[in-house]
Amino acid sequence: MNLAAMTNPIRLAERLKSEAHELGFAQLGIAPAVTPSGFHKLLEWLANGYAGEMQWIERRVDAYGHPEGVMKGTRSVLVAAMNYHDGTAPSGTRVARYASGTADYHDLLKPRLQQLANRIRSEIPGARTRVVIDTAPLLERDFARLAGIGWFGKNTMLISRSLGSWFFLGAVLTDAELDYDQSTNNSFCGTCTRCLDACPTQAFPEPGVLDARRCISYLTIEQRKEPVPHEFRSGIGDWLFGCDICQEVCPWNRFAPSDTLPEFRQTPAMQNIDCCELMTLSEQAFSDRFEGTPLSRSGRAGLLRNAAIVLGNQGDPAAIPTLKACLNDEEFLIREAAAWALEKLSRE
Fold it and tell me: Is 134 noted as a catalytic residue in this protein?
């Protein structure tokens, strides 16, 4: 039975898109629930070991093969894009833009996506929905492309002609059949390779393929329980948490809008992080400062490990007393990174 039979699907799609804009989303697209074209590429990516220690991807790999792996009976996937670019120029110790505001994006997107889901259920009685924000086995980028939001860049990011790539993606799955958007079948990157050329750790073995094990975002966020391999530490540069280099050099981001939610705007506290001061934080002080923000994901040991590497790369001898004090920290990750930074500073 077609649950949307009594509702005009085109008008419903228009109402959903209008409500999405009112909720702060820059774009909403609707795609059919199909096996995403990127599923077989995901299998190849995993086989090549490019996922690093992100073992949860392989544990749930079969579910990525179709939205049914997330919600039985799914027929439509609504994908919403929310801009987080605020137009400010970065400086000093770097934190990825998406994490430079005052809140975790999951907490801001989820209730807004839930309102879209509520709209579907109110318009189509009996319809089922599920909200997804990058925690379920759904290839959001694939469905965003199918929904006409953008194309895959050579840096693997989804790029929109009107938004660039500075946006979050969230999805609503439903068992209702809706009016689908035209997919984006073309790439508009042309011969440009700026993102590939700019990566300091050479994380792209080929265009459109990311080796996460070499990616600064992975190294500073996901690999938070192990030391960063020595060959990548200098390449991390000033990046304390995440990395935006391949997005910053993308020509399409020259057109990125700067209107975003207040919670996503970069704060002075995130723009002017003092790594020496970070190295003095206790577990409680770390929790008090970063709880509820994306930086909490690294944990104290992971973030202070990163801070020590940044201090080593910045080459300021004023950091030496702080780093020496960290040689007695209870966390091996911090002690090891502090020792590396001290050795690097001694050579400069």
Answer: yes
Question: Out of 134, 197, 274, 288, which one is annotated catalytic?
Answer: 134
The domain tally of the chain equals 2
Q: Residue count of the chain, please give it.
A: 348
Q: Could you report the per-residue pLDDT of 8-49, keeping only the tens digit for each?
A: 889 999 999 999 999 999 999 999 999 999 999 999 999 999
> Cα–Cα distance between 223 and 235 in angstroms, integer?
16
Global pTM exceeds 0.90 = yes
Query: How far from the centroid of its chain's Cα atoms is residue 329's Cα?
Result: 31
Q: Do 154 and 112 reside in the same domain of the chain? A: yes
Query: N- to C-terminal Cα distance for the chain?
Result: 72
Domain that includes residue 313, residue range: 201-236+274-346
One-letter amino acid for residue 314 of the chain: Q
**Shared domain check, 210 and 88:** no
- Pair 21, 123 in one domain: yes
112 and 214 in a single domain? The answer is no
138 and 226 share one domain: no
| Residue 39 token pair | 């599923």
Residue with tokens 């050479």: 202
**185-214 pLDDT, tens digit each:** 999 999 999 999 999 999 999 999 999 999
